[in-house]
Amino acid sequence: MNTHVKPSLYVTAPVNALVEGIYQEDVTMTELLEQGDFGIGTFNHLDGEMIVVDGHIYQLRADGLAYAVPPTTRTPFACVTYFKPYSVEEITQPLDYAGFSALLDRLLPSKNMLYAIRIDGRFDYARTRSVPRQDSVRPLVEVAREQPEFEFTEVDGCLVGFWTPHFLQSVVVPGYHFHFLTDDKQHGGHLLECRPSQVRISLQHIPSLKLGLPLTLDYLTADLARDIHADLEEAEK
Ligand code: ZN
C-alpha cells in the first residue's frame, strides 16, 4: 500500500446494480485484497455474505457455515479498505440494539464521513442472515424475503462493517452495515440485530471513495435510473 495515498473505501460496483439483480461481475478475490484487508460484500450468484477480516475472506453461506474462498471467486458487490483504527472504545456493560446503535452514533464525529468499524468481543445475542445462491435473476428485495436467519447467544465474535452517509445510497448500503463472524470462524452472516456485553469498538474514518464501474454487458446495458431506496431498506434491514 502506498502510504502517501489517503485511505479510501473501494467499492467494486454501485449497489444499485445489485439491487436490480446483477449478481455476476468480474472482480476476483485476489483483486479485492489488493484494495484492502477489511470489508464486506457478497459473491457471484449472491452465494452468501462476505466478510474480510485481517486480510482473510470468509463466505457465510445460506447453510449457516463459513467457508474459505478460492482466489478466483468473483464478486458483484463488495467494499473494502485498509483498516487502521484511530480510536478504540471498550464497552463493559450489556447494551440492547437501540443502545448499541446510539453508542455508535455518539462515537462518529460527523455523519457525512465514511467510517470503517470493527467490534470484537462477547455478544449476549446476535441475529444474522445469509442470502441464498441464485441461479436465475430475481430482484434483491425478493431474494431477501426468503433469506435464512441464524441466532447466536453468549457468543464471541467480530463485527466488520461501515457507516455510509445517506447521500451515497445508490453506491453503498447507507447507514450502518455489519457482517458477523464467530471467533471460531465457523458461523456468521449479515447482521440484523445484536446485544453486545463486553466489546472493543475500533473506528477509522475514511476520507475518500473509489468506485468501480463494471464493464460487463449486463452492467453496461442495465437501467439503473430507478430510485432503489425502499428496496434497499427492506433487503438490508
Ligand atoms: Zn450485508
Notes on the protein architecture:
This protein is α+β, with helices and mostly antiparallel strands. The chain has one domain: 2-Layer Sandwich (60s Ribosomal Protein L30, Chain: A), CATH 3.30.1330.80. It is 16% helix and 41% strand. It contains 6 helices and 14 strands. Strand 5 (56-60) and strand 6 form a beta hairpin. It starts with 7 loop residues before the first strand and ends with a helix. The model has no long low-confidence stretch (mean pLDDT 94).
CATH superfamily: Hypothetical protein, similar to alpha- acetolactate decarboxylase, domain 2
Name the poorly predicted regions. none
CATH class wording: Alpha Beta
Helix content: 10-25%
The major beta sheet can be summarized as:
7 strands, mixed
Number of strands: 14
Q: What do the pLDDT scores average to?
A: 94
Question: What's the helix-strand series?
Answer: EHEHEEEEEEEHEHEEEEHH
The domain count comes to 1
Give the overall shape.
Answer: globular
Strand content: 35-45%
Distance between the termini: 34 Å
Helix and strand content put the structural class at alpha+beta
Q: What Rg is obtained from the alpha carbons, in whole angstroms? A: 17 Å
Oligomeric nature of the chains: single chain
What CATH calls the topology is 60s Ribosomal Protein L30, Chain: A
**CATH level-two architecture:** 2-Layer Sandwich
Counted by DSSP, the helix tally is 6
- Distinct ligand kinds: zinc ion
Main sheet: strand order:
6-5-4-3-8-1-14
